[in-house]
Specification:
Elements: H1 3-10, E1 15-21, E2 35-43, E3 46-49, E4 55-57, H2 59-65, H3 74-86, E5 90-94, H4 101-105, H5 109-112, E6 116-120, H6 127-133, E7 138-140, H7 141-155, E8 159-165
Parallel strand pairs: 1-5, 1-8, 2-8, 5-6, 6-7
Antiparallel strand pairs: 2-3, 2-4
Helix pairs in contact: 1-3
């Protein structure tokens, strides 16, 4: 079963929000009570749920996630995104100094305005570029969890966060925030 098919089946019971961002940012999604959390990884250019997931996203789990240095291939994410986008309720792209733009461009245009958002740390200089391709929702990363909880509450389904790491880190280029 593909990841998209697995997620589509789970969508009837949960509000699924796919986050494409840097693993260093995971702490921004910690809430009380903790949300369901699923890390999706790629192996041989195929996406799958990582072993040991889903779990709850606690502060301790967020700290562990910061050191999950998944293999990252933007080409593979871009190829998988159309199917993944249709299998979830909402998609969030971390801007990461403009690195989210190529990923965002690969999302089906019918999802951009109402079922997707671009998040950022302090500012979003590339906002007009995202708007030109169809995005209408922009907010700080620190607001993302609250906004997703609100959307899930309106859907009357509990929220589950799905995460795909979009920046390749390892021990040579990682910094502890």
């Amino acid at each position: 079963m593909t990841l998209a098919a697995e997620l589509a089946a789970r969508r009837s019971d949960r509000f699924l929000a796919l986050i494409l961002d840097n693993e260093v940012t995971v702490g921004e999604f910690v809430t009380q009570p903790p949300l369901h959390w699923t890390r999706c990884i790629q192996r041989n250019e195929v996406f799958q749920v990582a072993e040991g997931y889903p779990t709850l996203l606690t502060a301790a789990q967020a700290k562990l996630e910061m050191r999950n240095w998944d293999d990252v291939s933007l080409k593979t994410i871009i190829a998988a995104l159309p199917a993944l986008g249709e299998s979830v309720d909402y998609i969030i792209f971390g801007n990461n100094a403009g690195q989210g733009l190529p990923l965002a461009q690969s999302l089906s245009s019918n999802l951009m305005a109402d079922r997707a958002a671009v998040i950022y740390a302090e500012s979003l200089p590339q906002m007009s570029r995202y708007q030109q391709i169809g995005f209408r929702n922009f907010f700080r990363r620190s607001e993302a969890a609250e906004r997703l909880v609100d959307l899930a509450t309106k859907s009357q389904r509990p929220l589950e966060l799905l995460f795909i790491n979009t920046i390749q880190h390892d021990e040579t280029n990682y910094h502890d925030p």
